[in-house]
Amino acid sequence: MKKILSILILALGTLSSCAPTRVVVENNKYEDFKLSNYTTFDFAQIDTPNDSLVPYQQLVDLLKENITKAMEARGHKRVTADPSLRINLGVVVADKVQKRETNVTSDPFTYSGTRSYYWESREIPVNTYREGSVTVHFVNNPGNVLVWAGTISEVVPKKQEDKLAAIQDAVDQIFKYIDLNNK
To answer: Which residue positions does the secretion signal occupy (predicted)?
Structure first.
């Protein structure tokens, strides 16, 4: 029995490691992109002061830190003077409402008085959450040309330690996509 359980766990681990990423990239757009063609990188600089970035500064800093680690693990060096690849990040966090549709079996109506009415299904809110999206643009620095763009969207966890893990997972998913599709 233990042997069968061990085989099942191994099979599930193998399948989950081969699962597709959640990164969205425009079809047939960046097939020529190869990360290995670049040796140095840096992040795009914001030229104008922007107060709207203040709430997201910690998030952007964590993204930069995790992306830097991923790039350096692939042999790229971060330099500020004339990098071959610039990375631009876009972050959007939006409040969302989870809804469900009512139906007669879960939301029955009660009788009172005459039956001169009708019942119809409707959507009702059941939960609120925050959804975060990160868009990563790789820009060929000498020509200032976008060479790859991908987006990943996730529910933003409420706990700070879960947020850190979610950021790491998002970066891992982006580089997993790049590793699989842009050799």
So the answer is: 1-19
CATH for 56? 3.30.160.670
Range of the domain at 176: 20-100+127-181
- Spell 65-102 as b/e; 16+ CB within 10 A means b: ebbbebbeeeebeeeeeebbbbbebeeeeeeeeeeeee
State how many domains the chain has.
Answer: 1
Token look-up 């020509």 returns 143
Q: What is the pLDDT of residues 127-159, one digit of tens each?
A: 888 888 889 999 998 888 999 999 998 888 888
Farthest CA pair distance, the chain = 80
**Among 89, 100, 160, 157, CA closest to 126:** 100
Show the beta-strand stretches assigned E in the chain: 40-43, 77-78, 85-101, 123-140, 145-155
- CA–CA gap between residue 66 and residue 169 (Å, rounded): 10
Alpha-carbon distance 81 to 39, whole Å?
13
Is residue 122, in this structure, part of any structural domain at all? no
Q: Is residue 57 part of a domain?
A: yes
> Taking the model in full, what pTM does it have?
0.72
